[in-house]
Amino acid sequence: MATRRAGTGALTAVVACLALLLVGVAWIVTTYMTGARFPIPGVGNLNLAVGAALTGLGLVAGVIAIILAVISAANGSDRDNRR
Question: How many domains does the chain have?
Fold first, then answer.
């Protein structure tokens, strides 16, 4: 039986948040630098919408991470700080 460490969900959400934010910003920068020809050729300025959507999902993941951390602290499941 596998045991789950407290706070794992929040850590996963933080990693997802950072990854999505970085990919979204890189997508937008790539779109601007290539004159909207890349990362997806042929869709033009819709590449900006894809980058904005990725960045928005990163912000949502950040909010989820905060909520999970607050719930974890409220439940006292963070056993590393207990004595």
Answer: 1
